[in-house]
Amino acid sequence: MYRQDYSFPFRIDASSRQAQRAAYEAHVGQMVRQVLLTTPGERVNLPEFGCGLRQLVFAPRTAALDSSVKLIVLSALDRWLSDHIQVREVRTGGDPNAGELSVDIDYILRETNTATTLQIQLGAS
Questions:
Q1: Given 3.10.450.40, 3.40.50.970, 3.20.20.100, 3.90.1150.10, which CATH number is that of 4-123?
Q2: What does residue 54 show for φ and ψ, rounded to 5 degrees?
Q3: Which DSSP category does 39 fall into?
Q4: Max alpha carbon distance in the chain (Å)?
Q5: pLDDT one-digit tens code per residue, 59-99
Q6: 93, 113, 95: which is closest to 105 by C-alpha?
Q7: Could you give the 3-state DSSP secondary structure of residue 10?
């Protein structure tokens, strides 16, 4: 089965002049990015949506921050995307002196039982 969904951000495909589509795996990756990069309160009709990772970029890098990031990411993905993915592991990294934070998420797509890794990089640049 080959499933497609609408791309995010929404845009029109130049060749077909219809809404651009994305493969299911890419669409789920786009949804993960939406959840992690949206600050709660940013969406008027869904104020609890998101997890606010951007707020943590300049926080002092400690073991406590890494644990907090993992907990925030796991909680947000479990709340908003548990029908689509099963998170296996969350890892943090990046250069704290440069104001960089990276989050690697290993997850399994429930529909296809495919293991996937997605990296989110946040930073000052």
A1: 3.10.450.40
A2: -60, -30
A3: P
A4: 49
A5: 788 888 889 999 999 999 999 999 999 999 999 987 777 77
A6: 93
A7: coil
pLDDT tops 90 at residue 58: no
- Best CA proximity match to 112, nearest among 27, 29, 24, 8: 24
CB-based burial label for 111 (10 Å; 0-12, 13-18, 19+) = middle
DSSP 40-105: TTSSTT-TT----GGGGTTS---HHHHHHHHHHHHHHHHHHHTTTEEEEEEEEE--GGGTEEEEEE
Structure tokens at 38: 């949206």
pTM: 0.79
Q: For residue 118, give both structure tokens.
A: 């997605």
Strand partners, 52: none
d(CA 66, CA 30): 23
Residue with tokens 């300049």: 58
Residue 4: per-residue pLDDT: 59
Q: Are the beta carbons of 39 and 55 closer than 8 angstroms? A: yes
